[in-house]
Amino acid sequence: MLKNFLTVGGWTMLSRILGLVRDQLLAAFMGAGALQDAYQVAFRLPNMFRRLFGEGAFNAAFVPLFSSVLTQEGEEQARTFARRALGVMLAWLIFLCVAGELFMPQVLRLIAPGFLQTGDRYALGVSLSRITFPYLVLICAAALVAGVLNGLHKFSMAAAAYLAFNVVGIAAILFVSPFMPNVAYAAAWGVTASGVVQLGLLLWSCHRAGFGLMPLWPQLTPRIRLLVRRMLPGLVGSGVGQINLTIDTIIATLLPAGSVSLMYFADRINQLPLGVLGAAAGTTLLPVLTRHLAAGEHEAARAAQNRSIEYVLLLTLPAVAGLLVLAGPIMIVLFGHGSFTEHDALLSAQALRAYAIGLPAFVMVKVLSPAFFARGDTRTPVYVGISILVFNFILNLLFMKPLLHVGPPLASSVAAFLNVAFLTLLLRRRQALELEPATGRNMALTIGASGLMAAGLLCVEAVIGFPAGLFLRMIWLGIMIVLGAVFYGILLHAFGIIDAASVLARLRRRFGKRSV
After folding, report:
1. pLDDT tier at 130 (50, 70, 90 boundaries)?
2. Could you write out the DSSP letters of every residue in 266-292?
3. Per-position DSSP letters for 377-410, written without gaps between them
4. φ, ψ for residue 161 (rounded to 5)?
5. In this structure, are residues 59 and 143 in contact, taking their beta carbons and an 8 Å threshold?
6. I need a labelling partner for 450 at 20 to 30 A (CA). Which of 70, 189, 209, 395 fits?
7. 3-state DSSP of 286-336
8. How far apart are CA 350 and CA 415, in angstroms?
9. Neighbour tally for 429: CB within 10 Å
10. DSSP 161
11. Nearest to residue 205, comparing CAs of 280, 137, 148?
12. 383/100 Cα distance (integer angstroms)
């Protein structure tokens, strides 16, 4: 499981790095203002579908069913089920896309009510949204094909295809912009074009794996009905984080112009550890839990859950500490160029700290949710999700005026911790989650090591101030990150959480094999 976890995480990390380059271009060309706000809102709706379907409800419902059919009835029946599901999904999504194109002005009034205050932002938002909306059809179909690949344990092919989103997006910004009214139009067309490329790559990967997927005519067979029943409630249960972010965006449109942009770039940095660890944990844990539970191996399932919790916290908590200490320098170095000023970067850093506070909770939701889905229970997370949505909305209303662009991120972080608390309580009551003493000990020591690392970085920052000039700042930030990582590793070794000699030996063996 760890190998698959690292494989998915590695491809996702590469995708996030390319995404960072794409975001830097967006910031440099559009800054933080009305144009950027309009583009980000246009991208929010299809992107929410991407995350819900690609990393949430659909994967949670489809993979266990597909894996069960594949194991019990063979490849032919599994392929038929996947083709039938693809046909039903495409029929529904194409209908949804056509309706969205026709009623986009009304949709935008719902998701960006603040744009009505200025006609330019609203008109631009409608135009850009109509360009990006077909992406939801392409990426949701791609999610199904990726689910098939994951069910076949072809994790690397499914994860690597998503690089296309950022590669195509970067190319569109750099090379298509001169032929468009502005950069926002080029970026919007890049979104939809990337969906075509991603779906094509995944279908090609399936064909290479000997599992070609030509959609069948839509038909609600009993198995498809079961898939739909499991999937629909899971849209809320597993997608609470994304729906909360959409609520944040709605509230942000009511704040001063540029607030949507400030929150977006902060969230993008927060998504680096969240996307890598959360997606990797959720993607690799669900098939493992499903297999153990189907075989009646409940102890093995609980052990796998414990290992996942340890892995994600081991990597998430130092990321939180680093983001809290270095948020300002990170945002200045990465985005404080061109139209995105240093002042904009510091304001965005405030939102980043608010997001970072909830990072462990956001990732833990991805680890805890598969424990329900693997048991065929997608209803319980729905009830929890609805409560969290209401709570997040109330917090947004309370925070939006006094905290401005920091309010929505802080509301989401607080709501995420409440989500984790509810999920943990319910799993413990069902005896589906039982932390081993070693796991609890390692969690406490990891928290301590992360806190000490943060204190160490603050001391170094007080002695060596943030320099002037981009090159020196890049070197300074790189040194701080390396110092933090080394200090954290030393603390983990000193606390007995990891054995440094064993880790180095494994790395040498791994790289030694690759070099042969």
Report:
1. very high
2. HHHHHHHHIIIIIHHHHHHHHHHHHHH
3. --SHHHHHHHHHHHHHHHHHHHHHHHHGGGHHHH
4. -60, -30
5. yes
6. 395
7. HHHHHHHHHCCCHHHHHHHHHHHHHHHHHHHHHHHHHHHHHHHHHHHHHHC
8. 18
9. 9
10. T
11. 148
12. 28
Q: Identify whether the C-beta of residue 366 lies closer than 8 Å to the C-beta of residue 419.
A: no
In whole angstroms, give the CA distance from residue 99 to residue 94: 9
Nearest alpha carbon to residue 186 among 201, 168, 199: 168
As a residue count, the chain comes to 516
CB 87 within 8 A of CB 116: no
Query: Tokens representing 439?
Result: 């796991």
Domain ranges of the chain: 2-435, 438-516
Tokens of 98: 């056509």
Give CA–CA dist 82/79, Å, rounded.
5
pLDDT for the residue numbered 25? 92
Residue whose entry in the numeric block shows the structure tokens 């944990």 = 281
Q: Which of 302, 284, 462 is nearest to 375 (CA)?
A: 302
What does the pLDDT average to over 450-470? 91
CA distances from residue 437 to 303, 434, 441, 444 in whole angstroms, order as listed:
12, 9, 6, 11
What is the amino acid identity at position 55?
A: E
* Residues 398 and 417 sit within 8 Å (Cβ to Cβ): no
Q: Cβ distance 422 to 370 under 8 Å? A: no
Contacts of 512 (CB under 8 A, 6+ apart): none
What is the SS3 assignment for 20-81? HHHHHHHHHHHCCCHHHHHHHHHHHHHHHHHHHHHHCHHHHHHHHHHHHHHHHHCHHHHHHH
Q: Are 31 and 339 in contact (CB under 8 A)?
A: yes
Distance between alpha carbon 201 and the CA centroid of its chain, in Å?
Answer: 21
The angle subtended at Cα 359 by Cα 452 and Cα 45, nearest 5°, is 160
* Model pLDDT for residues 331-386, shown as the tens digit of each residue: 999 998 888 889 999 999 999 999 999 988 888 887 787 777 677 776 777 778 77
Residue matched to tokens 């109509």: 130
Block residue for tokens 């002695």:
463
Which residues have a Cβ under 8 Å from the Cβ of 154 and sit 6 or more positions away?
A: 205, 209
Q: Read out DSSP for 188-255?
A: HHHHHHHHHHHHHHHHHHHHHTT---PPPPP---HHHHHHHHHHHHHHHHT-HHHHHHHHHHHHHHTS
Record the pTM.
0.75
- For residue 254, which phi and psi values (nearest 5 degrees)? -85, -10
Give CA angle at 467 (266, 338), nearest 5°.
Answer: 50
Q: Specify the amino acid at residue 334.
A: L
Count of Cβ atoms closer than 10 Å to residue 381 Cβ: 30
**Of residues 59, 36, 41, 30, the one with CA closest to residue 140:** 59
Q: Mean of the per-residue pLDDT values for the chain?
A: 82
* pLDDT at 442 > cutoff 60: yes
